[in-house]
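Sequence in, structure out. First:
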Amino acid sequence: MELELERDTIKGYRTVAEVTLCQEETLESIVPDACPDILRIVDVYGQATLSGKQAREDLAVVNGMVRVAILYQPEGGSGLRRMEMGLPFTCQAEAPGLTDQGAVVACPRLRGAEARALNPRKVLLRVDLAVDVTACQPEERALCSGVADPQEHGICQQKWEGEDYQLCTVQEKPFTFTDQVRLQSNSGEAPQLLASRVQPQCNESKVIGTKLIFKGAVELDLLLQEPGGGLTAGHETLPFSQIVEVAGAGEGADSQVLVEVSGYRCEILPGDGRDLEVTVELLGQALVRCHRPVTLLQDLYSTACLTDVESRPRELCRLLEQSVRPQVVRELVESGEMIRSVVDSRLALGQVRQSREGGELVLTADVALTVLYLDENELPQCLQKSLPVSCRLECPEGGRCTCFCLSPGEVFATPAAGGVEARFTVEFHCLTTARQTVPAVESAQLGEARTATAGERPSVVLRLATPGEGLWEIAKAYGTTTEQILQANELEEGDLPTGRMLLIPSVR
């Protein structure tokens, strides 16, 4: 006869893919007729935007667009000119087990962009992309928590009490906001907007009831050109706040919100040419995790009947650490010439690699630093340097770390002997978890009554506990209960005494 078991159903998400896809894209383009011929290319400002993402059968697909502004010195002219280009991209990540019911979280980043003039009217653009992709599949797990009516057949149960740190909700919210910025100028005339880039960051998120509230800011960087040809950089912080529904997460859940740019535009408003209207289209992607209490039936037997139990291991997750680890970097970028002044400096963050050294994980982010400066002849020049930035994290063998990087604040760069000294901060946002395997009962069958073989065994047994043997194992082997063994030997709950004969009463 099959025993009726009580089961709890856990609903959540299973991560089926978590990868960083790196790829290059190239595009040739003709200089528009309205633009003068190219003498030399000075710098390339780029922005990767997220156009869409799809969950397919065993595949996560991400689409986006790289928008660039190529800044160049024209033939026979002064100052800088700009040429805009757009380059679409598509990448795919293998995600075994993913279906169209799954969710994809994507974060594209532009690791670098460069342009080369093939001739005065033709440009070759190359961009280097890194796209973080996480694919999650909804799932339901039925876990056995106990026997429906244990008294009926004298059922003894061994249970495991703990918790599962699970991804319970994956939600997203697109939103748009518009703000105005007053352009500053060193002269009486309005400056020209040469290039712009936006970097959104979520600074705070919290689950209250069924709502997830997240706040942050878009860091707007501008490159301006004065009427006389001088270059200046501007920086603005544009705050935002949003609410998204996350039913089923519960109070105290841990939330991680990744905000990506899906589009933006900057337009000079009519008037004196100093008011800039900035419209940013954003996508907030929320992953919410919670600590769910779990009771698992690990083993059972009947004192009345012989029992056949089928078990299989269950994998649960526990949180080890959730932290933000800022790394302050000071770096000298050599130029080989005298630098009169620094106009602008910026960072691009690439892939985060992991390696192990003993009980620690070494997290290393690829960072590309770009500095726009004026040389001793007051000509704009560009310096670039790639460097690794690392931090260490304690993590036991078998532990798993999910990490992404941000660069909060501005990059400070000043002329120094031999080049430019740059100072900036890279934050490593780390989530470290570990898997634990717990044996669990799947089904149980009751066989013939123990009284059928009662005459073949004594009613009382004397024996020593073998090393590593517990009270449960002894009681199960003789079809009695742990309480009766403790009572017969006048013992309290705890470890069995070593070297002592135990009186094992049988149940009749």
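Second:
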Amino acid sequence: MSKSKFVIDKLAKLFEQGLISYRDLSSEILNILKSKRDEVIFKMQITSKEETEILNKRIESLEKKIHKLEKKKFKKKTNKAR
């Protein structure tokens, strides 16, 4: 109940400030939701976006190396003895 009250309070403040246009309202709502998301992530001690990107790049490079090794292994198996 308190979380929904928080969102309703934020929306009420937006209307009080006179934000009439849809773009202003939607951008403010997105900013509020992003800040709440960041708070939750900080509390959960999840990795940051930069750390996640670095880990993804490392995984991609390892997958490429594995793919190259598999190709080499496949080529060696196809050689026939004379």
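Remark: The helical segments are 2-17, 22-44, 49-78.
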